Amino acid sequence: MWTVIESPVGELRLVERDGALTAIEFSPFRPSSDGRPMGQRQDDHPVLAETVRQLSAYFAGELEVFDLPLAPVGTEFQQRVWHELVQIPHGQTASYGEIAQRLGYTNAASRAVGLANGRNPIPIVVPCHRVIGANGSLTGYAGGMERKQILLDLEQDALF
């Protein structure tokens, strides 16, 4: 099942499968990334409705930590990276090297962390936008640099 919502970073398509959120996609939307059908649009599906509620609260500056059933599809390494992303507190950032170190690797794994970060299928909720370069630069973002900046600014504004 899926639904579409408006947000400060444009339209978002939310995808649910087997009772968990599996994807948040930025527009323009593409066919299913894993080749499986997404099912029909169902705006009132409980998981999707709760995701809409929490995202709306997040964008309004009223929610800092999401509490949703998540089921991102990825390799074991990607899953470990995505788990670390959720540990980055709202309004804070971490570098690719810091994430690598938290996983028990050296800075040499920064590139692999960056690639896993870029494959995150549930952006915003799994906050890949909070990962920056070692020098503090924004670096890349699958949703585009403008969206990354909007999300970081939104979190900074919520802190004051």
Question: Biggest β-sheet, characterized?
Answer: 3 strands, antiparallel
Mean model confidence by pLDDT: 92
H-E order: EEEHHEHHEH
CATH architecture of the largest domain: Orthogonal Bundle
**Oligomeric state of this protein:** single chain
Task: State the CATH superfamily name of the largest domain.
Answer: Winged helix-like DNA-binding domain superfamily/Winged helix DNA-binding domain
Given the structure, what is the number of helices? 5
Termini separation comes to 37 Å
Low-confidence stretches: none
Number of strands: 5
Shape: globular
Across the major sheet, the strand order is: 1-2-3
The helical percent reads: 25-40%
The radius of gyration computed from the alpha-carbon positions, rounded to a whole number of angstroms, is 15 Å
Total domains, how many?
2
| Structural classification | alpha+beta
**CATH third-tier fold name of the largest domain:** Arc Repressor Mutant, subunit A
